[in-house]
Design a protein that fits this description.
Layout lengths: L12 H6 L2 E2 L6 E2 L4 H11 L4 H10 L4 H23 L13 H7 L4 E7 L7 E7 L8 H14 L5 E3 L8 E3 L12 H20 L1
Helix pairs in contact: 2-4, 5-6
């Protein structure tokens, strides 16, 4: 399937994951609808190094990546329910009771620190966090990390749904006055302006 480039407009990768299914123009697009889509989305999100994606894709058994994409979509819809339930107000500690599926995913992670060459602009060596990519299922781990960062670092009072008609996209409103209303002004904002203009014309007739 030919997909347009994925959309990263939420100012939070955890919310961008929820926006990996959307209707950017007229036709719904699910960027995770199969294993190739999942690989492509992770590459665009820069959540997995390109060489690791290539290696996992080469090692995967037939249909294995499609099954991981199935799990990613199920995880996405579970997390969408959690975010929509709590959006618009500070997340309370009792929300932790609902996060069992996410904690279960995070517990499977295999991360470690390794000393590597430092950046070119100074420093001979650097301590970096690395991850073991043992199987295609490990592709869900950086997604879980992005979701966890949303839960722990974002003020859920700033999490909003786009006001566009039939738009399903979510975003974190980090504008100074917290006045953002649209996923993308050029899409949903303009549609709303055009609809309001047509409504005013009809009322004048």
């Amino acid at each position: 399937m030919d997909r347009p480039p994925a959309m990263f407009i939420a100012d939070s990768l955890g919310l961008d994951f929820l926006n990996s299914v959307a209707t950017p123009v007229d036709t719904p697009v699910d960027w995770l609808d199969d294993g190739d889509g999942l690989i492509d989305w992770l590459a665009q999100a820069k959540l997995v190094p390109a060489e690791e994606l290539d290696e996992l894709k080469a090692r995967a058994k037939p249909g294995e990546l499609d099954k991981v994409a199935d799990r990613a979509r199920a995880l996405r819809e579970w997390f969408r329910g959690f975010v929509r339930k709590h959006a618009g107000r500070p997340l309370a500690v009792d929300g932790l009771r609902e996060l069992g599926p996410l904690n279960s995913l995070l517990e499977r992670d295999e991360m470690f620190r390794r000393i590597e060459p430092g950046p070119d602009d100074g420093g001979v060596l650097a301590l970096r966090m690395k991850r073991r990519w043992r199987s295609p299922d490990s592709l869900l781990l950086p997604i879980g990390e992005a979701m966890a960062k949303l839960v722990c670092d974002e003020d859920f009072s700033d999490v909003k749904a786009c006001e566009g008609h039939n738009c399903t996209m979510l975003f974190a409103d980090h504008t100074r006055r917290r006045a953002r209303r649209w996923c993308i002004m050029a899409v949903c904002g303009n549609r709303a302006k055009q609809a309001a203009h047509r409504s005013r014309l009809r009322n004048r007739q």
